[in-house]
Structures are given as structure tokens and as C-alpha cells.
Structure of Zinc transporter ZIP13:
Amino acid sequence: QISGYLNLLANTIDNFTHGLAVAASFLVSRKVGFLTTMAILLHEIPHEVGDFAILLRAGFDRWSAAKMQLSTALGGILGACFAICAQSPKGAGETVAWILPFTSGGFLYIALVNVVPDLLEEKNPWNSLQQILLLCTGITVMVLLSLT
């Protein structure tokens, strides 16, 4: 059951950084805020389902796992509050000057640590190509959304 609690801690920290990113993005503009929110939502849906399964496997019953997953969402609210409270009296520019690079770097690090090794270990070249194409499709969708 310790793995379930460790997963909850990691999920809370992850949600905190998501809250930081969303709030800081809205400080830049509504467009950037909505794009960031959409990207995080698309990332979070399968992520939360996976975390729920981890909790079930760690011995939590369905209701406890759902409550615990919901409680980790408070990390996102705390992150957003932190970003708003950290706003400089000189304007949002100084706040987002460190929050957005910090959260972006965290997301890139996680992606590189989790995705790239799996791609390199994949034995079937067709599976690797599919994963790379889907990754590029996601990037293309975000670029197209940012242009509108």
C-alpha cells in the first residue's frame, strides 16, 4: 500500500505544478491560459485513470481511491493560488518569468525521462513510428491551436 501513498504524493506535486502553469498562463493572456488548460486536461485524463488503477492495485477500494484522487486535485488549486499570490507588484511579467519556464522544464523532463527510453527500447519499428507520429500530431495540434 506504500506505493499507493507514494503515487498520491507524486500526483499532488504534479497537480501543484499544473496549477502553477495554468494560473501563470492566464496571467500572460486568456489565449495562453486556455491552451495550457487544454493541454493539461488532455494529459491528465489518461494520467488520472492510470493513477486510479495504481491505487486499486495498492489495495484501496474504489470509493477510497476516488476520494484520494480527488484530494490530490487540491495540489492544483494550491499551485494556482501560489502563482497568483506570487504575482509581483510590478506586473505579471515578473511572475511568469520564472513560473512558466519552471513548469515547462518539468514537463519536458518528465516526457524525456518517461517516453524516450520506452521509444528506444521498443523492438517493433512500426510501434515506434506510431508513437513518434502521435507525438508529432500532438505538437501540431497545439501549434495550430496557438495560431488561432
